[in-house]
Design a protein that fits this description.
alpha/beta, 7 helices, 7 strands
Amino acid sequence: MGKGGGCVPSKKKLPKPTTIVHESPPESTSNTTARPDPNNNLKLFIIFYSMYGHVEGLARRMKMGVDAVDGVEAVLFRVPETLSDDALAQMRAPPKDESIPVIGSPEDLALADGFLFGFPTRYGCMAAQMKAFFDSTGQLWREQKLSGKPAGFFVSTGTQGGGQETTAWTAITQLAHHGMLFVPIGYTFGAGMFKMDSIRGGSPYGAGVFAGDGTREASEMELALAEHQGKYMAAVIKKLARG
């Protein structure tokens, strides 16, 4: 303090402000934008059981819909057969196309980004072959490796009142215990969902086909609905992947 009570400036020098140097990012050595690696596509597993080929027909058309969406790739798989060859022969089931592999292990499900499960009805529920496959996913359930992954259903029934909705609806319990996200198609197919001038399988739950006595083939409208479901699910997977 000085005599007049004023403050005497300190003779200590203030430290010089630190200069922060920002390094420029390295310049690109290429003027072209890198194209995405096709091997990094999101994977959508279409897993089905088909005895007479009706569900398989929907699955193949569904794959076309998925593959039409950039960045998403569909992979077809069958679930293991539980009936003997003799039983299948007595039921006049045609031989299965070996170009579509049987899924190797339930653990393979963890590699997918999403799923579409297809199966025929058995008294309003999924066929035993598909149920047996879901029953084999206990380790995945225990570790919740499928939680948060989207999944949908497509079905085949013998008659109009044979379970187009209940077959999918009763299957939702499988997804719930795994913590998976059920993705129905709603009425996103547009006007095709309201047509009444011809017989058509499918519902807001997912695509469907009427098999009749086994000789009826899927109509073009039923196949178009399956293709739409493939595109729709692929779009949902992309949205979820963007987070």
